[in-house]
Specification:
It is a single chain. With about 375 residues, this protein is of the alpha/beta class. About 50% of the residues lie in helices and about 10% in strands. Helix 6 runs antiparallel to helix 7. The radius of gyration is 20 Å and the shape is globular. The strands form two sheets. It has a six-stranded parallel beta sheet, sandwiched between helices. A two-stranded antiparallel sheet has the order 6-7.
Length: about 375
Amino acid sequence: MRFDFVLSPKIIFGSGRLTELGAAASTFGRRAFVVTGQNASRATQLLEILKAHNVEAITFSVSGEPTVELVRDGRRQASDNDCDMVIGFGGGSSLDSAKAIAALMTNLGDPLDYLEVIGNGRPITNLSAPYIAVPTTSGTGSEVTSNAVLFSAEHRVKVSLRSPLMLARIALIDPQLTYSSPQSVTAYSGLDALTQVIEPFVSNKANPLTDALCRDGILRASWALRRAYENPEDKDARESMSLVSLYGGIALSNAKLGAVHGFAGPFGGMYAAPHGAICARLLPFVMEANIRAIRERMPDSDYLDRFAVVARLLTGNAVAEPHDGVVWIRELMESLLVPGLSTYGIEDSEYQMLIEKATVASSMQGNPIKLTTQEMEAILKAAA
């Protein structure tokens, strides 16, 4: 057995711990470039905490998912204001934007010099500017991942800027910050978090460390996601979902994802759709296709056993079979009102283009079995 494992240097976890941000930030300098979501007022408490520790804040609002142009602009503003550090505060879009900006502050050139697939793919060689990640949703796990997903309008695709040198110096996870998330965000981001502990567990790069995190994450999500959705201030549920998100970020960085995210990246580049909603809709149909394909072409592998473990953790049934997990996920998806992919405008004529993009996506390479074009088309039709 051989594997590598990379982890952010410091994780600060717990309700109410946002108050510790000022002291942590002050060790990196006196001027912070604070990347927030569209509603920058949500960062008021954070800005007050920084001010109390003599850290000046230059704010930068991200209104949608991060783009190549947005990151260029953010890097320019951070440099023009002589910022010492970058703080990402918000959902996955804010955190990925902040992470990319921090990387480009110390690595000269254009984002396209470093981007996968559509760019030159040059390696990041210099450690990012000090970066602190503060998530306000429980979903992407971006606070502990080593990549930032950016949208290129020119290419109609989302691709990653990726390097272990991009990891946050500090990931501060305060579950209280997730209480104010809209119900739909709780649903979509929570299902994304669940996907990100299922896919690494059944991926072709799973390892004992990621397995341990994924098992606990799947078990926690099995009860906490619905409770957080129904009661936004359920402390235990919110804390558990913050852990699920954290686990997923660590797991995907150290194992692999799969066909759900293999489709989600290209889909999000082609259509205006929330990433979490795409993952949520695809998850049961990808699981079903994988189980069927493994039974047909790889019946002697241990992947069916892994899907059975997923089903048992989700259902609480010690003798559940792989397909029971699919049924459980479909019922949850429906109860959390996840819309079909057709909501976003996809048509049958565009399936082939999406499949071609998904086939070469980095996440697809972690799927437990190589799916055929016919199997991938069937997934899209079922999820539509």
